[in-house]
Amino acid sequence: MKAAGHSLLAYCRPGFESECAQELAANDRRLASGGFARSERNSGFVEFVLPDPVQAQRFAEQVRWQDLTFARQLLRVMARIDDLPKSDRLGRLMPTIEAAGRRYRDAWIESPDSDAARELAGLCRSLNNALISNMKRAGLLEAESPWRLHVCLIDAQTAFIAEARCDASAEWRGGIPRLRFPSAAPSRSTLKLEEALLTLLDADEREAWLKPGMSAVDLGASPGGWTWQLVRRSIHVTAVDNGPMDPGLLDSGFVTHLREDGFRYRPATPVDWLVCDMVEQPRRVAALIGEWLAEGRCRFAVFNLKLPMKKRYDEVQLCRDTVLAALAATGRVAHWRARQLYHDREEITVFARSG
C-alpha cells in the first residue's frame, strides 16, 4: 500500500494525460498547493499528488469537476494498493475502506478508458457485486450519504481506493455517460451534442434553455446530426451548409436549409441557440462564436474546437480568452464551460453564453 490521502485521481481521454495534468497544475498554481502530476501516456488517468492530506482535501473542495476541460472525473485518493491477490482482492481492499470511517451512498469499481484497462470490464462487474455485499454486511452503505466510493483498477493487481461527493463529481462510471445512437439520426455526430447538453448543462438549465419553439442556427450542419438533437426538442433550426441535409429533417417542418458559408452567414434576427461543428482552425471558430455572442446574435452557443497536434492546452486557453475578450469589449459577461467528451476525438466541446 502506498501513502494515503495525498493525491487526486482524474480520468481523461487516453493520449490527453499531458493536457489533463497541465490543467490540474494550473489550478494548483492558483491555490499555491505545491502539488505535481504523475501520468503515463495512454493510461487514461492522471494522479495529482499534494504535499499532505489537508492540501489534497482543500484542492478537492475548491477545484470543481464541472470547471475542468480534460478531466472526466476527479476523485480524492485514500490509498493505492499494489499486488492485489487474485484469490482475494476484496480481502485487501476492505480494511482500507473500513478504516476510512465513512458510510457511502454507493460504490463503483471501474477502470480508466484505456485499451488495457477496458479488458478489466468483466472483473470490475464481478468485484463490484461482491464489494456491495461486503459493504452491506459491514454497515458501510447508507442511502442518504452524500459520498460515493470509487475503486479504480488500473490493472488486475493494482487499485486506487478513492471517494467523491455525489454532488461534486460526474454521475457516470468513469465519467462517461453511456449513450445509444438513435437510429433515426443522420450521423453519429449527433452523440456529441447529446453528450454536451447532458454534461455541460444541469437538469434545470436544460429545462429552462431548451424549450419547444425556440430558434437555432447550425453552422456546418450537413447531414444534420446536431440539427437532429434540436429538432427532437421541437426547436426551429436554420441549417447552414453547402452540403446536403437529411431528407427526414427537411420534411419535419422544423428545418430551413441554407446553402451558404457558415463563416459569412448572419441571421436577420437574433436566435436562441448557435451550434457549430465546422472543421476549421480553433481560434477562427472561437473568434466567430465570440462575435455572435458579443453582438447579441444568439443567447447560447455549443461548438467544437478541433485541437492542433501540439500545445493543445495552450490553444484552448487562447480560444477561451478570445471569446471572453469579445464579450468584455461590449460590456457583456461571458460564461464558458468546456469538456473533452467521450464522443470527441482530437477536439473539445464548449458551451458559452453571455449575461
Automatic annotation (TrEMBL):
UniProt-listed NCBIfam families: PRK11760.1
Reactions accelerated catalytically: cytidine(2498) in 23S rRNA + S-adenosyl-L-methionine = 2'-O-methylcytidine(2498) in 23S rRNA + S-adenosyl-L-homocysteine + H(+)
Q: Any idea where the Ribosomal RNA methyltransferase FtsJ domain is? A: 187-293
Which InterPro entries does this chain map to?
RlmM_FDX (IPR040739), RlmM_THUMP-like (IPR048646), RNA_MeTrfase_FtsJ_dom (IPR002877), rRNA_MeTrfase_M (IPR011224), SAM-dependent_MTases_sf (IPR029063)
What's the encoding gene here?
rlmM
User: Which residues does the annotation say bind S-adenosyl-L-methionine?
Assistant: 189, 222-225, 241, 261, 277
Q: What's the name of the protein?
A: Ribosomal RNA large subunit methyltransferase M
- What is the organism of origin for this protein? Dokdonella immobilis
| GO molecular-function term, one example from the UniProt record | S-adenosylmethionine-dependent methyltransferase activity
On whether Secreted is a keyword of this UniProt record, the answer is no
Q: Does the keyword Transferase apply?
A: yes
Under the subunit heading, UniProt states:
Monomer.
Where the protein is mainly located, per its record? Answer: cytoplasm
Q: What is one GO cellular-component annotation here?
A: cytoplasm
- Indicate the segments forming the RlmM ferredoxin-like domain, all copies: 7-75
Q: Which UniProt keywords apply?
A: Cytoplasm, Methyltransferase, rRNA processing, S-adenosyl-L-methionine, Transferase
Q: Which residues form the Ribosomal RNA large subunit methyltransferase M THUMP-like domain?
A: 88-162
Tell me where in or outside the cell this protein is found.
Answer: Cytoplasm
Hey, which family's this protein in? Belongs to the class I-like SAM-binding methyltransferase superfamily. RNA methyltransferase RlmE family. RlmM subfamily.
Q: What is its EC number?
A: 2.1.1.186
**Domain of life, source organism:** Bacteria
Leading EC class = transferase
Describe the function of this protein.
Catalyzes the 2'-O-methylation at nucleotide C2498 in 23S rRNA.
**GO terms (BP aspect):** methylation; rRNA processing
